[in-house]
Write a structure and sequence with these properties.
The structure is a single chain. It is built from 20 helices and 20 strands. By secondary structure, the protein is of the alpha/beta class. The chain has 3 domains: 82 residues, Translation Initiation Factor Eif1, CATH 3.30.780.20; 182 residues, P-loop containing nucleotide triphosphate hydrolases (Rossmann fold), CATH 3.40.50.300; 196 residues, Rossmann fold (3-Layer(aba) Sandwich), CATH 3.40.50.
Length: 489
C-alpha cells in the first residue's frame, strides 16, 4: 500500500512525502485552471498556462489548510497516512472546548449585545479547529464574531493578532466596531494603511493587505493569529505572501459574505485559512427577522430595433460604453433614484463615464446627494456614512469598488444596480449593503437594471449577465419580479 508521510514545515505549509508517482498524482489532483484565464495577457502571451498548482512536487509542500483535501485524496485511493510530529505540531490538531467556561468568559467583557446562536457556533468551530473560512452573509455580525475570537485568543495565548482588511475604510470601521464593543482600542489596537507607522508594541494590528504584504518575514514573527476579513477580495499573490510569512500563526480565520462559486477560489482560500464553514444564510436571517426583507424588481430595458441592429457584433467594452453613456437610460436611473422612499444607494462601475454623469443629473433635482468613489478620502466616506444613517431621503451615488463590500450603512432602504455585473461576490455583497434592519423596519428594495439589446437569435453580453444574476437570486431564494420597460430615444 502506498503511504503519505505528512509533517508540518511551519503553520503555513506542510510537507507531503511520498513516491514520485504519487507526487505526480498529487500535483495533478491539486491543479486547477483559473476561470477566464484564456483572456489574461500572460496566457495570451504564452508566459503562463492559466493553471494554479497547489502542490509543489519538487519541494513536496502544500498549504496546511488543505490537510482535509489530502485526507480525501488518500481515502479515495486507499493510501495510508502517517503523521510526523514537528515543533509546530501535527496538521489537523484541535482544541477541546469547555462550553460552560467559554460562555462565562465571552459574557464577561460586557459587549453591548450577546452572541446569537449561529455566531457562537462560528466562534466555537473556529476555536476548536484553529483555522477556517467563515462564510456568513452581510448583516450577520462578522466583525462581532472576529471580536469574540480575538478576545479569546488574547486571553489564552501570548502572541499578537493581525486583522487584515482590503480597504482603508474597513480599517477604520473595524477599529470603531471594536471600540463600540467595549474594547480599549486606543491602547490595544494599532492601525496601518498608507503613511501609518508599521512598528508597534500593541498586541492587535488592523491593516490593509496592501500596506504590509511586502514587509520582511521578521515583521510577522510575533503574529500568532490572523483574521482575513472580506478575504475573497485579497489579491492572491499578496495574500499568499502575508500568510506564508506568518509561520507562527497557528490560528487563521478568513471571513467573507460569499465565495465566487469557483472551485479554484475556494481551494486557494482553504489552503491559507482552512476548510469552509457556512455560518448562516441570508434567507435564515430574514426568516428570524435579523435582516430586512428583500424585494427585487428587474427592469428589462428594451431598446429600439435600430439600436439593437447597430449593436450586433460589438465587443463587450463597446456595449458597456454605449449603455453607460445612453442618456435615456441614465434619465431613467435618475428618476428611479428620485422617486424612492427612504435612503437610496445607486451603484455604478465607471467613475468618469458613468458615476460623475449620474451624480450631476441627480444633484440637479435633489439636495441630499452624496458621491463616493475610489478617490474619496476615507474620512469623507466615513462622514457620508454617518450623515446618511441620520437622514431620510438621502441618495448615495457610489462606485461598486468602494460600496459593494464591507461598508455598513444601517439606514439604507433602496439599491439600484446602474451597471451590469455577473459576479456572484459583487452582486451578493452589494445586496448586503441594504439588508441591515432600518429603524422604521422598512424592507429593502433592489432595482436591477438589465439591458435587452438582442438582435434576432444573437443575445448581447449584458443580457446574458442579467441571466446570471437571476440564477444567483434563485439560488439564494430571493423573491424577484421581471418588468419589461420600453426605452425610447
Amino acid at each position: 500500500m502506498e503511504k503519505l508521510t505528512i509533517q508540518m514545515v511551519d503553520h503555513a505549509m506542510m510537507a507531503v512525502l511520498c513516491e514520485p508517482s504519487v507526487r505526480n498524482e498529487l500535483k495533478e489532483y491539486f491543479t486547477f485552471e483559473v476561470p477566464g484565464a484564456k483572456f489574461m495577457p500572460a496566457v495570451k502571451a504564452r508566459r503562463w498556462d492559466g493553471k494554479i498548482r497547489l502542490y509543489n512536487s519538487l519541494t513536496c509542500e502544500i498549504n496546511t489548510g488543505l490537510y482535509h483535501k489530502i485526507k480525501k485524496f488518500a481515502a479515495e485511493r486507499h493510501y495510508a497516512i502517517e503523521l510526523k510530529q514537528s515543533r509546530y505540531g501535527i496538521p489537523g490538531s484541535t482544541n477541546e472546548i469547555d462550553h460552560q467556561k467559554l460562555v462565562k468568559f465571552l459574557g464577561s467583557f460586557n459587549a453591548p449585545y450577546e452572541l446569537r446562536d449561529y455566531q457562537y457556533s462560528a466562534v466555537t468551530h473556529a476555536i476548536e479547529n484553529k483555522r477556517a473560512v467563515l462564510v456568513s452573509p452581510t448583516g450577520s455580525g462578522k466583525s462581532f464574531i472576529i471580536y469574540n475570537l480575538m478576545r479569546w485568543y488574547l486571553e489564552n495565548k501570548n502572541k499578537r493578532v493581525l486583522v487584515v482588511v482590503p480597504t482603508t475604510s474597513l480599517v477604520e470601521q473595524m477599529y470603531k466596531d471594536f471600540k463600540d464593543y467595549g474594547f480599549d482600542a486606543e491602547n490595544e489596537c494599532h492601525i496601518i494603511y498608507s503613511g501609518k507607522e508599521k512598528e508597534t508594541g500593541k498586541r492587535v494590528i488592523i491593516s490593509t493587505w496592501q500596506s504590509i504584504h511586502k514587509l520582511p518575514k521578521d515583521w510577522y514573527a510575533e503574529i500568532g493569529c490572523i483574521f482575513g476579513d472580506e478575504c475573497h477580495l485579497f489579491k492572491a499573490k499578496s495574500l499568499n505572501s502575508i500568510m506564508n510569512k506568518s509561520i507562527n500563526a497557528e490560528y487563521r480565520f478568513g471571513t467573507t459574505g460569499t465565495l465566487d462559486g469557483t472551485q479554484t477560489h475556494k481551494l486557494v482560500l482553504e489552503g491559507l485559512f482552512g476548510p469552509v464553514f457556512k455560518v448562516t444564510t441570508t434567507k435564515k436571517l430574514q426568516e428570524e427577522n435579523t435582516l430586512a426583507g428583500l424585494s427585487i424588481d428587474i427592469l428589462l430595458l428594451e431598446y429600439p430595433k435600430e439600436i439593437c441592429r447597430m449593436m450586433v457584433g460589438k465587443k463587450y467594452q463597446e456595449e458597456l460604453e454605449f449603455i453607460v453613456t445612453h442618456e435615456p437610460r441614465n434619465k431613467l436611473i435618475r428618476n428611479l433614484a428620485l422617486t424612492q422612499t427612504g435612503n437610496t444607494l445607486v451603484l455604478f462601475q465607471f467613475v468618469e463615464k458613468h458615476g460623475e454623469i449620474l451624480y450631476k443629473m441627480i444633484k440637479e433635482k435633489a439636495k441630499d446627494v452624496y458621491y463616493v468613489h475610489g478617490g474619496t478620502d476615507t474620512s469623507d466616506r466615513e462622514a457620508i456614512r454617518g450623515i446618511v444613517e441620520r437622514k431620510d431621503g438621502a441618495i448615495i451615488v457610489a462606485s461598486l469598488g468602494t460600496f459593494s463590500t464591507g461598508i455598513n450603512v444601517r439606514n439604507l432602504h433602496n439599491i439600484i444596480f446602474a451597471s451590469p455585473s455577473k459576479s456572484q461576490v459583487r452582486v451578493l455583497q452589494s445586496i448586503g449593503r441594504g439588508l441591515r434592519k432600518a429603524e422604521n423596519n422598512q424592507d429593502t428594495k433592489l432595482i436591477d437594471i438589465a439591458d435587452d439589446l438582442h438582435w434576432e437569435s444573437k443575445k448581447n453580453f449584458t443580457l446574458l449577465h442579467s441571466a446570471e444574476r437571476i440564477k444567483i437570486y434563485t439560488k439564494e431564494q430571493f423573491d424577484f419580479k421581471l418588468h419589461k420597460v420600453t426605452l425610447s430615444h
